[in-house]
Design goal:
Elements (H helix, E strand, L loop, with lengths): L4 E5 L6 E5 L6 H11 L3 H13 L3 H14 L7 H22 L3 H21 L4 H14 L3 H14 L4 H13 L3 H14 L5 H13 L3 H14 L4 H14 L2 H17 L4 H13 L3 H13 L4 H17 L3 H14 L6 H12 L3 H14 L4 H12 L4 H17 L4 H11 L4 H19 L5 H13 L3 H17 L5 H21 L3 H14 L4 H13 L3 H14 L4 H13 L3 H14 L5 H15 L6 H21 L4 H14 L2 H14 L4 H13 L3 H16 L4 H14 L2 H14 L4 H20 L5 H22 L9 H16 L1 H61 L37 H5 L3 H43 L56 H11 L5 H13 L44 H10 L34 H40 L18 H10 L4 H35 L5 H27 L4 H27 L1
Antiparallel strand pairs: 1-2
Helix pairs in contact: 1-3, 2-3, 3-4, 4-5, 4-6, 6-7, 6-8, 7-8, 8-9, 9-10, 10-11, 11-12, 12-13, 13-14, 14-15, 14-16, 15-16, 16-17, 17-18, 18-19, 19-20, 20-21, 20-22, 21-22, 22-23, 23-24, 24-25, 24-26, 25-26, 26-27, 27-28, 28-29, 29-30, 30-31, 31-32, 32-33, 32-34, 33-34, 34-35, 35-36, ...
Length: 1315
């Protein structure tokens, strides 16, 4: 068999029929041969294939339709051939349906294809070619994309390089805008077969174009053209790339490619649409319409049909054939996909032309949804929303235009649109927008600002009250119009009229009514039908109260337009201002009829008319109820039309208030005020409600705030309301002041005069009724009464209609006359009362003057007495200072050896202080010369610092003592003196501080001094109430111990040797053996509290001063070894004496124990002082290496006063003066029995010490022993006298303690004497 022939075997023979495949006979002839010879099915398929290639579609279909019943199928692969025959015929019907334009015919072809594919499914359902063919059919149907995708996925799972499956999958992904995935499947198809069809390259080019890779897209389209030069898709793709490049040569090349594609396939809709787009920009609208019509008729693809309709619509739009343009725009939107928004944009423009702004906004909203950053769409939408009555829409328009100005800040139209929207809500922002637009024109376009923008800027300035700047802009705009009038006369003349009218409004606001009238009339001269000029001229006449002339101007406006609502409104307001309710109501009803009940202002005005009728006096309750219901109905109608109308809500509140629902009315007014604070009516109504609720203060405050906020205190009506509030509140003087202010503002208003007269009459009546009114008040009241009588008389004779009742004015005049007839009586009574009060005042002044003179005399006497006392005290002070100089001077004696410490080797080891390194001779011997010199310098510096500190302390104490003495002199007429005693190291004479002796003379004894006795005023008042035990504890806490270790050792030794204290005789250290730093603090005792053990401090006299100052309620005696210079008071460590009542039994027992403890403390102190003096003496001998010399020992003078104690007692001195005297008397009685013996012993001791400075230790010891015994006897006597009975056991324990203390002191002293 030859390659181009086919052999058909004959039945029951070995012969064949050979057919030339290139010259096949008719299909009917071949069909007869195939049926007769019972040819196998695969030969039928081969013949049908060649008939398809020769485009003999009838014979192709004939063979495939009859092969199922006539062909032989008794061979192995007959099922596969059956399925192939069905799939091939189904694919043919699919191709026919795809090309069919008639929907019914297409549906018929698709139905046949579906039936054939179903039959094939029953034979081999999962054959790859069968599934691919069926998937392509589902993809073509459009609504079975998911089924097609599943079948493609099934095939690709078995064969990844299947070309048809990859191409089908790529188409699905391309339609889903997954261009990268679609490109991948096209590449797989290309890898599977290098000789794949050109459609694969075309698909790859489209994917590259969608991905933005135009170079590779161009390469793909060119390769597709190489494979198939008649590929219209590739030609169109290359043409689009060249047209979008912008290059002139490429544009020409792109047009040539489109023409080539049109020559290959003149019915290709894509080619026709692109050619139509090209001719649209060349403004050849006839060719555009011809090509677009052929494209629309030659395709059933809705996307392509939408583009064809859009090309037709915009060609008609440019030809201003708006009806046809609207039709094709609308048809395009029906075919277009949601992403194709150009038809919606054009349709929105058509709706704007038809003034259907709602539908226009819907169209542009669809565009903005797909392209949210499109500036043109946002500008148009912003302009549409700005004209809406919905506030939300206006806000949305503002946000859109602000977004445009942000994205494109140099868009002049956007700034102008934004200014127009903001002008009604935010004038300042609108002014900024207009100024920005003007600045862009100046800077970027370099031209003068157009008069429209200047006019808008001036309008904003007018609203802001900046009239001067507004005038400048209007004048600039008019100059521009005059200068450019020749270029565009019609437009600029119209703008000139508008600017002139606005300029007249500006002059009207500036109260230059003459200029305003001239401009209005000039406009009317050129344009007689300019209705607003008539209305403004009528308003000027109305403001001048030329009602008749104003009415004529309004009627002239009505002649131009009979239905003009503004003219009828102004006429109706004229009637209402004259309280002509009926004519005014008719005018507003006419407006409502012409506007079909949509004019809210007119409806509100009629409601106000019915509300005013409620305020008229009437006794007909039925009519009042009727008026209330009508007013309420009109206000509700306004709220239904405009739920945010504040005036309607305010009217409803007024109706509720008239009905008596005060709380509900107040709630309504409060809500209105919260909604807007720029409505003065609601402020006034709230104040009225407060008046009804008798909250007069709140009402007055509300009226005043309203006057201040809205009227700058210049509204007469509100001033009357405020005067009424003050009158009801009873503030007649304030009411009179406010009415006088209103009278000055409106002198022609008789109602104000009536109210003023009424207030004057009430003021006069109240004054005359008050019997306590003065003469001047009564005379003034009579004058006010006369004035009110004249005013009422004049007002009662008025002829014109007034706002008050004439009869009421006449009645008030008669009442004023009656009161004036009684004026003489009231004047006489007031004069008499005035004379009486004057006489009383004179008497009071006289008595007051006498008292003042007496007081001055007493003050002068007191002052003189104080001066005399002060002079006397100064004299006494000078005498005292002279006597106190240079009286305590002693010579220093060599220190005796110190006694050994404790039970250790007392005879061999001396007693040293643990805190003083210089007292140890062993340590001193080990020091070199440099260290000794350094220590000398350190000690010298320390002594210098201590000396300076002592001097400062002295000055402070002198000042405090001087103040204290001066205070005592002022309070007490007597003189207070005390003795200063020089005590030995073991002196016990501190208890005799209360014995006052005469001041000794200077030549009596070289050791006597004149101290000043301290009293209760120097002590701390807070300690007077404490018990003796607490006082002793406090005193102990305040002591400072310098050598704590030695002190504790000495106390232990003293406790061990208390029993042998009285058995042994001891010697006492001489006064000269004690150095300046070792002078002990004086022992103290009182009649009520046990003495506190003094601290031994060898640091300096400053520490002793501190210790003595802390003692409270005690009088002490100290050694005075150094005279002071320029001192006010000479006292040696003086303490204060507390005067208390007789101590009780318990207190006496405590005193006895304290005295015994004090004896032991004295002995221990003596031992410690001796040891310290010996240490210092040895140190001085080693350092100086010279013979001992006698030195004078000076005792610093200290005061027990402290600043705090003086300040406390100054405030309490007067209240406790009497208590001090009583306590002194009681304490003096207690201490009289012991004072004589103690005084004698002290005198004897001072005398002995003055005669022989260095007495033996034995005599001193015996004297101290006698004193202790005498003090013990005295304490026993006081205990027997006060307590009566005491326990024998307590006496034995006391005697044991005394013996132990005596034994300890004797042992220490005997060891000292032996050493």
């Amino acid at each position: 068999m030859k390659s181009k022939s086919l052999e058909i075997p004959l039945r029951d023979t070995d012969e064949v029929i050979e057919l030339d495949l290139e010259q096949l006979p008719e299909g009917e002839e071949i069909l007869g041969i195939l049926r007769t010879e019972n040819v196998p099915l695969h030969i039928w398929l081969t013949l049908a294939k060649h008939y398809y290639k020769q485009e003999k579609m009838h014979d192709f279909v004939l063979l495939l339709e009859n092969c199922h019943k006539d062909a032989a199928t008794d061979y192995r692969e007959q099922e596969k051939d059956k399925m192939l025959a069905l799939d091939t015929l189904a694919a043919h019907y699919v191709s026919l349906g795809r090309k069919e334009k008639n929907k019914e015919a297409r549906k018929k072809h698709f139905g046949k294809a579906t039936s054939l594919y179903t039959q094939a499914d029953k034979i081999i359902m999962y054959d790859q070619n069968h599934l691919v063919g069926r998937a392509h059919f589902c993809l073509l149907e459009g609504d079975k994309t998911d089924q097609a995708d599943a079948q493609f996925n099934f095939v690709l799972a078995k064969s990844e390089k299947h070309i048809a499956a990859n191409m089908g999958k790529a188409c699905i992904l391309f339609n889903k805008k997954d261009y990268k995935g679609a490109l991948g499947h096209f590449k797989k198809a290309l890898k599977g077969n290098d000789n794949c069809p050109a459609s694969v390259r075309l698909g790859m080019g489209l994917c590259f174009y969608r991905l933005g890779n135009t170079d590779k897209a161009q390469m793909a389209f060119e390769r597709a053209l190489e494979l198939d030069p008649r590929s219209t898709g590739s030609l169109i793709g290359l043409a689009i790339l060249h047209l979008n490049s912008g290059d002139k040569d490429k544009l020409i090349k792109g047009v040539k490619l489109l023409s080539q594609a049109y020559g290959i396939d003149s019915a290709n809709s894509m080619t026709l649409n692109h050619l139509a787009n090209h001719f649209f920009f060349k403004k050849d609208y006839q060719k555009v319409q011809h090509l677009a019509q052929h494209s629309l008729q030659g395709t059933e693809v809705e996307v392509i049909r939408a583009e064809s309709c859009y090309q037709l619509a915009r060609s008609y739009h440019n030809q201003q054939k708006y009806d046809q343009a609207f039709q094709y725009y609308y048809q395009s939107t029906q075919f277009a996909s949601p992403s194709y928004v150009l038809p919606h944009f054009g349709l929105g423009q058509m709706y704007i032309f038809r003034e259907d702004y709602a539908n226009a906004a819907l169209c542009f909203e669809k565009v903005l949804k797909i392209q949210p950053n499109n500036n043109e769409t946002m500008k148009i939408l912003g302009s549409l929303y700005s004209q809406s009555d919905d506030s939300d829409k206006r806000d949305q328009a503002k946000s859109l235009l602000q977004k445009v100005t942000t994205q494109c800040p140099k868009d002049i139209e956007a700034w102008i649109e934004l200014g127009g929207i903001l002008q009604n809500s935010d004038v300042n922002e609108a002014l900024k927008a207009y100024n920005t637009a003007a600045q862009i024109i100046r800077d970027n376009i370099h031209e003068d600002v157009p008069p429209e923008i200047l006019n808008n800027i001036a309008s904003c300035l007018f609203q802001l009250g900046k009239y001067e700047e507004c005038l400048q802009h209007y004048e600039t705009a008019l100059d521009y119009c005059k200068r450019e009038l020749q270029n565009d006369e019609a437009y600029l003349s119209a703008i000139t009229v508008t600017i002139t009218y606005n300029l007249a409004r500006l002059y009207e606001a500036l109260h230059e009514f003459g200029k305003a009238e001239d401009l209005y009339k000039a406009v009317l001269k050129e344009h007689p039908n300019y209705l607003d000029c008539y209305l403004r001229l009528g308003c000027i006449a109305r403001d001048r109260e030329q009602i008749f002339e104003a009415s004529n101007w309004f009627k002239d406006a009505l002649q131009i337009n009979q239905d003009n609502a503004n003219a009828w409104t102004l006429i109706g307001n004229l009637h209402i201002s004259k309280q002509e309710w009926g004519p005014g109501q008719k005018k507003f009803e006419r407006i409502i009829k012409t506007t079909n009940d949509k004019d809210s202002y007119s409806i509100l005005a009629i409601g106000n008319v019915w509300l005013q009728m409620l305020y008229q006096p009437t006794r007909d309750r039925d009519k009042e109820q009727k008026y209330q219901e009508r007013a309420l109905a009109f206000f509700k109608q306004v709220l239904r039309q405009d739920p945010r109308n504040m005036y309607a809500a305010n009217g409803i509140g007024c109706v509720l208030a008239v009905k008596g629902h005060i709380r509900e009315a107040r709630d309504v007014f409060a809500q209105v005020r919260e909604a807007t604070a720029e409505m003065p009516d609601v402020w006034i109504n709230l104040a009225h409600i407060y008046i009804e609720q008798k909250q007069y203060v709140s009402a007055i405050q509300m009226y005043e705030n309203c006057l201040k906020k809205f009227y700058s205190y210049q509204n007469v009506e509100i001033l009357l309301y405020l005067a009424r509030a003050h009158f009801v509140c009873g503030k007649l003087e304030e009411t009179r002041r406010i009415l006088l202010q209103a009278r000055h503002m409106a002198p022609q208003d008789n109602l104000i005069l009536f109210n003023l007269s009424y207030v004057l009459r009430h003021l006069a009546t109240n004054t005359l009724r008050d019997e306590k009114s003065g003469l001047e008040e009564v005379v003034s009241a009579v004058r006010n009464l006369e004035l009110a009588q004249r005013f009422f008389t004049m007002l009662s004779k008025a002829t014109e209609r007034q706002k008050y009742d004439l009869n009421h004015a006449a009645a008030e005049a008669r009442q004023c006359t009656d009161l004036l007839s009684q004026a003489q009586y009231h004047v006489a009574r007031a004069r008499k009362l005035d004379d009486e009060q004057r006489a009383i005042r004179m008497q009071q002044e006289k008595a007051k003057q006498e008292l003042e003179n007496k007081r001055r005399e007493e003050e002068e006497l007191i002052r003189k007495e104080k001066e005399e006392k002060h002079q006397a005290m100064l004299v006494q002070r000078e005498v005292y200072r002279e006597k106190a100089k240079n009286i305590l001077i002693f010579t220093e004696e060599p220190e005796p050896p110190k006694a050994p410490k404790g039970r250790r080797k007392k005879e061999e080891e001396p007693l040293y202080s643990s805190g003083d390194a210089s007292s140890d001779p062993d340590k001193d011997d080990g020091l070199n010369d440099e260290e000794k010199e350094r220590k000398k310098k350190e000690k010298a510096e320390k002594r210098q610092k201590k000396k300076q500190a002592r001097e400062e302390k002295k000055k402070a104490r002198k000042e405090r003592e001087r103040k204290r003495l001066q205070q005592e002199r002022e309070e007490k007429s007597g003189k207070y003196t005390s003795k200063a005693f020089i005590s030995d190291s073991d002196s016990d004479g501190g208890d005799d501080g209360d014995d006052a002796e005469p001041v000794p003379k200077l030549n009596e004894s070289p050791v006597k001094a004149v101290p000043v006795k301290t009293g209760l005023l120097d002590s701390d008042s807070s300690d007077l109430d404490e018990s003796p035990r607490k006082k002793a504890a406090k005193t102990r806490k305040r002591k400072h111990f310098s050598d704590s270790e030695d002190d504790s050792d000495i106390r232990e030794e003293m406790e061990k040797g208390e029993e042998e204290e009285e058995k042994k005789d001891t010697s006492v250290t001489k006064i000269s053996d004690i150095s300046e730093d070792d002078v002990p603090e004086a022992e103290t005792s009182t009649s009520t509290a046990p003495a506190k053990k003094p601290a031994i401090d060898d640091s300096d006299s400053e520490s002793n001063d501190k210790t003595s100052d802390k003692g409270e309620g005690l009088e002490t005696e100290t050694l005075e070894s150094q005279p002071t210079e320029e001192t006010d008071v000479m006292v040696s460590e003086t303490r204060e004496t507390v005067f208390e009542e007789n101590p009780s039994e318990e207190e006496g027992e405590k005193e006895d124990r304290s005295e015994k403890k004090k004896d032991s403390d004295d002995d221990s102190d003596h031992v410690e002082k001796k040891s310290k003096s010996e240490k210092r003496r040895k140190g001085d001998e080693k350092k100086k290496s010279e013979s001992k010399k006698k030195k004078k020992v000076e005792s610093p003078i200290s005061s027990s006063d402290s600043d705090d104690e003086v300040e406390k007692h100054k405030s309490k001195k007067k209240s406790k003066a009497s208590e001090e005297k009583k306590s002194k008397k009681k304490s003096s009685k207690v201490s009289d029995s012991d004072s004589d013996s103690r005084s004698k012993s002290r005198k004897k001791k001072r005398k002995d010490s003055s005669l022989s400075p260095s007495l033996s230790s034995d005599s001193d010891s015996e004297d101290a022993k006698k004193k202790r015994r005498s003090r013990k006897k005295k304490s026993d006597k006081s205990k027997k006298a006060d307590k009566g009975k005491s326990s024998e056991k307590s006496k034995q324990s006391k005697s044991k303690r005394d013996k132990k203390r005596s034994k300890k002191v004797v042992d220490s002293l005997s060891s000292d004497s032996s050493s």
